[in-house]
Amino acid sequence: MTGQSVDLRQLEIFARVAALGSFSRAAEALHLTQPTVSEHIRALEDELGIRLLDRLGRGAVLTKAGHLLIAYAHRLLDLLIGAAAPVGAPRWVRSLRPAATAARRSSGMRSACDGARGAWSSRADAGRRRPFRDRY
Predict the structure, then answer these.
(1) Could you say which of 43, 50, 52, 86 is the most buried, measured as most Cβ atoms within 10 Å of its Cβ?
(2) Nearest 10 degrees: Cα torsion 16, 19, 24, 30
(3) Which residues of the chain have pLDDT under 50?
(4) Confidence (pLDDT) at 86
(5) At CA 11, angle to CA 52 and CA 103, rounded to 5?
(6) What is the pLDDT of residue 122?
């Protein structure tokens, strides 16, 4: 670790890149520039000391470490959305919304998150709000 900290915005950007399979599509969906998205991902990888995405031409796919992190990222983002709802939220939290369900399913990411699904579905408020991971 480099002394910087991993932040939730980096995790949200990571989740969007993973879901869409592309830095440029994620940038467009997040209303950011592609270099900004790349910088966030690079900072996240540097902080964790491991590569999370393999860059393949114009695309990106999760590495083994990326598959492990994505389920945790979705859970953390679910908590953020749930905590922010009653008290208001920064603009970027309010912007979390469905964007790439089909891309996520076709990339095989659904299986990476299946282990976390049981905890959400057993919660009393499961019917009120879809988890972040289901939004992608």
Answers:
(1) 52
(2) -30
(3) 97-128
(4) 73
(5) 70
(6) 32
Count CB-CB contacts under 10 A for residue 99. 20
- pTM for this predicted structure: 0.66
For the CA atoms of 101, 102, 103, 106, the dihedral, rounded to the nearest 10 degrees, stands at: 120
Instruction: Give the pLDDT confidence score for residue 60 in this predicted structure.
Output: 96
Round to whole Å and give the CA distance between 47 and 45: 5
* Token reading at 121: 């579905």
Rounded Cα–Cα distance for residues 64 and 62 (Å)? 7
4, 9, 88 from 32: Cα distances, Å: 22, 12, 22
CA dihedral 1, 133, 19, 115 (to 10 degrees): 70
Q: Residue 135 carries which DSSP code?
A: G
Number of other CB atoms surrounding residue 9 within 10 Å: 14
Per-residue tokens: 52: 């999370």
Query: C-alpha dihedral over 98, 99, 103, 104, to 10 degrees?
Result: -40
Supply 79's token pair.
């908590």
